[in-house]
Write a structure and sequence with these properties.
The structure is a single chain. The protein has eleven helices and nine strands. It is an alpha+beta fold and about 325 residues long. The protein folds into two domains: about 80 residues; about 230 residues, 2-Layer Sandwich (BirA Bifunctional Protein, domain 2). The strands form two sheets. Strands 1-4-5-9-8-7-6 form a seven-stranded mixed beta sheet, sandwiched between helices. A two-stranded antiparallel sheet has the order 2-3. Helix 5 packs across helix 10. The longest helix has about 40 residues. It starts with a helix and ends with a helix. The structure holds phenylalanine.
C-alpha cells in the first residue's frame, strides 16, 4: 500500500493522477481485487479484513483529493503565467474616437475669433420670423427671403436659416460695444453636392460707437483670418448684396486646388467664394433700438471650409457617417 501512497503523492499532472485513481479505486483496481478476496476469508477474520480495506479506501480518497488540489493550484498558476496580459500595452486593434472634421474646422474658426477677443454666443435652432428675418431688414414678402429656402412650422416659427438671429438677440439684451461670434447648425431646403439641409455657420458681429468701425477693420480681420485658415492665399472682396449689411461684399480666396490657375472646382475662375460680410445696415440697429453706433458683420459656412481644407468633393459624404472617410481625420 505504501508504494501506492507514494505514487499518488508524486503524480505530476491531473492525467497521471486519474490513471492512478482508476488503477487503485476503479472496478478492476487494486482495492476491488482485495475486496474480491473476501469470499475466501474465514468468517472470523472477515470483519477485520473489511475494516482494513475500508480504512485504506478512505485514505486513498483523502490522498487523491489532496493531490488533486495541489495539482489544480499548480496548473492554474502556470496558466496565469502563460496568459499574463500587459494592460499597459497599446492594442493594434483599438479605435479611438475623434471630432468630426466639420467640428474640427469649427473649433479652429472659433479659436481664431476667441483669440481676437470675440465672445461666443449661442441661440436656439427654432426661431421666429422676427429674429430670423424681420429684425434683419427682411420684411415679409421681401424678395431676398428667397435667398434662404426656409423650413416653416406653424405660427411663424421656423428652423433658423442662419445664425444671425443670435446677433439680434444679443443686441436686444446687451449694450454696445459688442464683439461676438455665433457658431451653430442652420437649416435650408437644399440638397446637392455643395448643399445639405442642415449645415453649420459661424457668423460674427462687431458694434461700437458711430464712426469707429470701418470697412477697413473688417477687411483686415477677414484677410488675417483666411490666411490663418488656408495658409498663403490671395483674398479679394467682391461687391454683393445682403439685406442686413450695406455695403455688402462676398469674399473669395485664390483656389486652393489649382492655386489660381483655374480648375473644375473654381469653375476655371481661379477664385473660391468663402464668406459674406458687410457694414451693418441702419435698419438692423433700428430694429434692436441701437443709436449712434456702427458695426460690421460676416458669415461663413463651416462645411465649405472643411471641404476646401481637406479637399473633399461632395459635401453630402460628410454626413453619411462612413468610417472609411471619417477615420482619415482622427
Ligand atoms: N447671414 C448670411 C447668410 O447666412 C451671412 C452673412 C452674415 C452675410 C453677415 C453678411 C453679413 O447667408
Amino acid at each position: 500500500m505504501k508504494e501506492w501512497y507514494q505514487k499518488i503523492q508524486s503524480a505530476g499532472c491531473m492525467q497521471e493522477l486519474e490513471e492512478l485513481r482508476i488503477a487503485i479505486l476503479g472496478k478492476k483496481g487494486v482495492l476491488a481485487e482485495q475486496f474480491a478476496k473476501m469470499k475466501d476469508i474465514e468468517n472470523k477474520q472477515k470483519a477485520e479484513f473489511a475494516k482494513r480495506l475500508n480504512i485504506a479506501k478512505s485514505e486513498f480518497n483523502k490522498l487523491f483529493n489532496e493531490q488533486k488540489t495541489i495539482l489544480q493550484a499548480r496548473e492554474l498558476e502556470s496558466l496565469l503565467k502563460s496568459q499574463q496580459i500587459d494592460v499597459s500595452l497599446y492594442s493594434a486593434t483599438s479605435n479611438s474616437g475623434a471630432l468630426h472634421p466639420v467640428m474640427q474646422t469649427m473649433e479652429k474658426i472659433v479659436e481664431y475669433f476667441t483669440s481676437m477677443n470675440f465672445s461666443i454666443e449661442m441661440g436656439s435652432m427654432i426661431e421666429d420670423d422676427f429674429h430670423n428675418f424681420e429684425a434683419l431688414n427682411l420684411p415679409k414678402y421681401h424678395p431676398a427671403r428667397d435667398m434662404q429656402d426656409t423650413f416653416y412650422f406653424k405660427d411663424e416659427m421656423l428652423l433658423r436659416t442662419h445664425t444671425s438671429p443670435v446677433q439680434v438677440r444679443t443686441m436686444l439684451h446687451a449694450k454696445p460695444p459688442i464683439r461676438m461670434i455665433s457658431p451653430g447648425a442652420v437649416f435650408r431646403r437644399d440638397y446637392d453636392i455643395t448643399h445639405t439641409p442642415m449645415f453649420h455657420q459661424v457668423e460674427g458681429l462687431l458694434v461700437d460707437k458711430e464712426g469707429t468701425v470701418s470697412f477697413a477693420n473688417l477687411k483686415f480681420i477677414l484677410e488675417d483670418f483666411l490666411k490663418y485658415m488656408f495658409g498663403e492665399v490671395d483674398v479679394r472682396f467682391r461687391p454683393s448684396f445682403f439685406p442686413f449689411t450695406e455695403p455688402s461684399t462676398e469674399v473669395d480666396i485664390s483656389c486652393v486646388f489649382c492655386k489660381g490657375e483655374g480648375c473644375r472646382v473654381c469653375s476655371h475662375t481661379g477664385w473660391l467664394e468663402v464668406l459674406g460680410c458687410g457694414i451693418v445696415d441702419e435698419n438692423v440697429f433700428k430694429a434692436v433700438g441701437y443709436k449712434d453706433v456702427s458695426g460690421y458683420a460676416f458669415g461663413l459656412g463651416v462645411e465649405r471650409f472643411a471641404m476646401l481644407i481637406h479637399h473633399i468633393g461632395d459635401l453630402r459624404s460628410l454626413f453619411e457617417g462612413d468610417i472609411r472617410l471619417l477615420g482619415q481625420f482622427v
